[in-house]
Design a protein that fits this description.
With about 100 residues, the protein is an all-alpha fold. About 60% of the residues lie in helices and about 0% in strands.
């Protein structure tokens, strides 16, 4: 049964692609190359720190996206609960 548009509830499409639920592997595949000026240990630490920062930023972004999907799921559940209550009351009214 369709939800009336006047209720202000809008159904959103959930991602069905498995890639939406798995972290990107680009940050996992990195190589450490020695720098041109011979200070490879300093550049390694900088690039390792950069990779950690990039991974943290990516994880934060993925966490926010997961929280949004969870909120949308909860909203859908709440909407379904309201639908069930309304339909039950209409059914009872018709059977009386």
């Amino acid at each position: 049964m369709d939800r009336p548009a006047a209720a202000g509830w809008q159904q959103s499409k959930q991602p069905t692609d498995i890639a939406a639920f798995t972290p990107a592997k680009a940050h996992m595949q990195s190589s450490i190359e020695p720098s041109q000026n011979g200070s490879s240990s300093t550049s390694s630490r900088q690039s390792a720190a950069d990779r950690v920062q990039d991974e943290l930023a990516q994880l934060k972004r993925q966490l926010l996206q997961a929280e949004v999907r969870l909120a949308k799921g909860r909203a859908a559940v709440s909407g379904a609960e309201v639908d069930v209550k309304v339909l039950n009351s209409r059914l009872r009214a018709l059977t009386k």
